[in-house]
Specification:
The protein has 231 residues and is mainly beta. The protein has one domain. It is built from 2 helices and 10 strands, in the order E-E-E-E-E-E-E-H-E-E-E-H. The strands form 3 sheets. Strands 3-7-4-8-9-10 form a 6-stranded antiparallel β-sheet, with helices on one face. A hairpin with a 6-residue loop joins strand 8 and strand 9. Helix 1 packs antiparallel against helix 2. The longest helix has 12 residues.
């Protein structure tokens, strides 16, 4: 069973008994998450309430139990590649896998484009860096997303992408993995030239088909924030 939300509205989008795709519960920043279940599939993730604004600094650490920071507007990212603020305290396995181990749950935090004044949807207006949606994944959906990330083969593809901070959308994915601390993974989307990092392993630009499966899975689990105007 899958729940989806337009910010400010939570609605049942559809259900399929015995689906292997897992379950995702998407919650707007103004509402508490809702778990979904059916006779053959149960979402066992816990309720997560978005936390306060992320503190200014060069790194940020988020655990699944903390929920999504309401805003990342105060964070500074001067890298021309993947985000520099990833802070995973346990580096074991992060050099060979984006997500080491098999996760039992995850949360996806998608943010409005950074370094812009505002971006609007049909429902509400967002300040740059605001939390757009928080989406909880059960064990099956979290494992599927982790596998799609781990299938990415890092590359050094050269492109003609123009890296403008004003057009950057960020996504945080936090995975709960038995036997270790939660793993934070950030996607930095330059609007067409995204890059993924767990703080140790970096994908390079996900273009020319690289990472296509991961990006499709991520967008299916949690729709991205709107593209800023004039881009």
């Amino acid at each position: 069973m899958r729940w989806s939300a337009v910010v400010g509205v939570l609605a049942l989008a559809g259900a399929s008994c015995g689906s292997s795709a897992g379950s995702a519960a998407t919650v707007p920043p103004t509402a508490a998450p809702t778990s979904a279940s059916s006779s053959t599939e149960v979402d066992t993730t816990t309720t997560i309430t978005p936390t306060t604004t992320a503190a200014p600094g060069s790194t940020i650490r988020v655990e699944l139990a903390d929920g999504c920071p309401h805003s990342i507007a105060d964070l500074t990212d001067t890298n021309n590649t993947a985000p520099q603020w990833v802070a995973n305290p346990d580096s074991a396995g992060l050099d060979t896998s984006f997500v080491p181990g098999t996760p039992t749950a995850a949360v996806i935090c998608r943010y409005a484009a950074h370094y812009i004044a505002t971006v609007s949807t049909d429902v509400r207006q967002f300040v740059g860096g605001d939390l757009f949606t928080a989406t909880i994944l059960d064990a099956s959906a979290a494992a599927a997303l982790a596998k799609s990330a781990n299938d990415i083969v890092p590359s050094n593809i050269t492109s003609a992408c123009l890296f403008g901070q004003q057009s950057t959308r960020y996504t945080l994915i936090v995975f709960a993995i038995p036997g270790r601390s939660d793993v934070d993974m950030w996607l930095k989307d330059w609007i067409g030239c995204p890059e993924l990092s767990n703080g140790v392993r970096t994908s390079g630009e996900l273009i020319n088909g690289v990472g296509r499966g991961f990006l499709a899975q991520l967008d299916a689990d949690a729709a991205p924030a709107p593209v800023p105007p004039n881009l």
